[in-house]
Design brief:
Layout (H helix, E strand, L loop, with lengths): L3 E3 L10 H13 L30 H13 L2 H8 L3 H15 L9 H14 L3 H8 L3 H22 L12 H4 L11 E11 L18 E8 L5 E9 L4 H10 L12 E3 L10 E2 L21 H26 L11 H21 L4 H4 L22 H20 L2
Parallel strand pairs: 1-4, 2-5, 5-6
Antiparallel strand pairs: 2-3, 3-4
Length: 409
């Protein structure tokens, strides 16, 4: 079951689409090395057209030397530049070549193409700056960036899905933790939404404005206890709240990994209590910060909320690692909105690939605290909980867990 989707809802192509594409091309072409825009460079002095200009950056040997130093230099230097250690990087290049048809050309190897893409995403670097590093023209950098992007999209389809028994069998880490087992025996993952800033111009930008007065995409994701993404719904404008994004993901042919009977995802109060989704008690302390330095849980509802928050925090830690690794997710990239969606999907695939490599990674090993990701506001609609029968069923499960936790304190 494929659980990866670039959300295409409300992406209607406007009549001025060509003008917007031209604008973004001009923006990318006229970027200065410091990221500023110099529109004056777009205009040619008619008295200087006879001057012969030398082509910039054309030194393919520079890129080959760069890759050699990346692979044979200090591992930390490689990690800081492309956000993975050399063995993982080599595995990634082989995977994209063997399974997703990424090809080399006369002057650009597969290793170089992948490093170009990783450099841009890790540092949110301009193509002009990366061109100087690798000794290629901006046209070559752009072409290689999109070739790797297409290959990573294909990889995302394969990597963003639950394991064979993940929706039916309890996770070993769940069973080995006495704080959660056997109370949350129906747990199969944590679900949440996070905002990724995007660059968008014109009237279309209105629906991308979120409540923090910035333009973003609201990314819905599910992860397991291994901090692996098992589903991602990408593309809904930032003005939509979490419950709305979930409804859109589930109502269409998006291959949402529906929880089997008796199983559920843990979500915060931004989601409705319904079959397949277990949310906390409203009106009670929930977040860990509300218990730090304060009195312990004083009721079965607070006891449930505290354990629920602790178990569900795996999605916040996963978001923290994902966003912390790729700077392009924290700063507005210099591409049109369609490419920005694809970049988000590609970085999710890279996240899973690095995690599955089992070769060690500083970001995963440090297990980022939830503070690495801004806390999303909870704005669920009470009206979502409209089916009393379904609500009562999940309320029964929640009350049963709460009573068991309270009795075992």
């Amino acid at each position: 079951m494929v659980c990866f989707l670039i959300g295409m809802a409300h992406q209607g192509q406007s009549s001025n689409g060509k003008e917007k594409e031209a604008f973004y091309r001009m923006l990318e072409d006229d970027e200065a090395e410091d990221g500023s825009i110099n529109f004056g460079e777009s205009f040619i002095d008619p008295y200087s057209v006879s001057i012969e200009r030398q082509r910039m950056n054309l030194d393919p040997e520079r890129g080959r030397k760069y890759i050699y130093e990346l692979l044979h230099g200090h591992d930390v230097q490689c990690y800081n530049i492309i956000r993975m250690y050399p063995p993982v990087y080599i595995q990634l290049c082989e995977k994209l070549k063997d399974d997703y048809q990424l090809k080399e050309t006369d002057n650009v190897s597969i290793e170089e193409s992948v490093a170009i893409f990783l450099n841009i995403c890790a540092q949110n670097a301009t193509q002009r700056y990366v061109g100087k590093i690798f000794g290629h023209s901006q046209e070559t950098i752009s072409r290689k960036f999109h070739e790797v992007l297409s290959a990573l999209e294909k990889m995302a389809v394969d990597l963003l899905r639950p394991g064979p028994n993940e929706l039916t069998q309890p996770h070993p880490r769940l069973q080995s933790n006495r704080n959660y087992w056997p109370y949350f025996k129906g747990f199969i993952g944590a679900i949440d939404g996070t905002h990724v800033p995007v660059t968008i111009a014109g009237k279309d930008s209105e629906k991308y404005w979120n409540r923090k007065s910035d333009t973003s995409i609201n990314v819905l994701a599910i992860c397991n206890m291994d901090m692996l993404f098992t589903y991602a719904y990408i593309g809904i404008p930032g003005s939509a709240h979490d419950a709305k994004v979930l409804a859109l993901a589930m109502e269409g042919p998006h291959q949402f990994p529906t929880a089997p009977f008796g199983k559920y995802y843990l979500g915060d109060s931004g989601y409705p209590l319904r079959p397949g989704f277990l949310t906390p008690y409203r009106g009670e302390r929930y977040h860990p910060s509300q218990y730090d330095g304060a009195s312990p849980p004083s009721s079965y509802k607070e006891m449930f909320n505290k354990r629920h928050s602790s178990l569900r925090s795996v999605i916040e830690r996963t978001f923290g690692v994902w966003k912390g690794k790729w700077r392009v997710l924290r700063e507005k990239p210099r591409y049109n909105i369609h490419v920005q969606r694809r970049v988000i999907a590609a970085t999710v695939a890279l996240h899973n690939f690095i995690r599955l490599s089992n070769l060690g990674d500083v970001d995963f090993d440090s297990d980022h605290p939830t503070g690495n990701v801004p806390t999303e506001d909870s704005d669920s609609d009470e009206d979502e909980e409209h089916n009393n029968t379904h609500v009562h069923y999940m309320e029964g499960i929640r009350d049963q867990i709460s009573a068991s936790l309270w009795d075992s304190r």
